Amino acid sequence: MISAGDLRKGTILNLDNTLYRVMNTQYHNPGRGAASMRAQLMDIRSGATQYRVFSAEESLNNLFVEHEPVKYLYNDGVFLHFMNTNTYDQYEANVSLFGDDILYLKEDMELQLMLHEGSTVLDYVLPTTVTHRVVEAEVAVVGNTAGAVMKRVKTETGLSVQVPNFINEGDLIKVDTRDGSYVGRA
Questions:
Q1: Is the whole model's pTM more than 0.85, yes or no?
Q2: pLDDT recorded at residue 144
């Protein structure tokens, strides 16, 4: 059990026999009256999101999950497929679970999945940085070089990243998965 005031992004809840992943939280303490926690919840099975407001002292049923090292195999349009690197068990996760983070995934990329009851994928942990090849780059603009000159590039997965002006098509770059920022050349 966890109090609603302690909810954080990534917490897995069991509400009315449905598993939800906390996507975002907002604590509200009006000064007078009871504090509350507004949470954006995603239904793990369907991918639908909803907002719920809980009293800060309310006890909620959270789940403890297993972390398994996996490799990303492929995307069939509906599910993402993964393989455990130790046991070779295969898992599938709904595309909606990853949201925009799907753009960081490349074949044979290693990450961690959080599983419930050995097979239901509840959440994931991406590596801090990933390496991608630039497939599309804006043309460098001469002039206005008083500050750091940046431009937008697109990687092989479709990820759009703001990079320094010297990065060209075909270059390998490192991208921070926490905020999508350019880290350096690979």
A1: no
A2: 59
Phi-psi map region of 184: left, alpha, beta (phi>0 left; psi -120 to 50 alpha): left
Instruction: Look up the CATH number of domain 129-185.
Output: 2.40.50.140
The CATH class for the domain spanning 2-60 reads mainly beta
The residue-averaged pLDDT of 139-163 equals 81
pLDDT in tens, 16-46: 888 888 888 998 888 888 888 899 998 877 7
Q: 163 and 175 in contact (C-beta within 8 Å)? A: no
What whole-number distance in Å separates Cα of residue 154 and Cα of residue 138? 9
Rg (the chain; Cα; Å): 20
CATH 3.40.630.10 correct for 66-125: no
Q: Tell me the β-bridge partners of 49.
A: 42
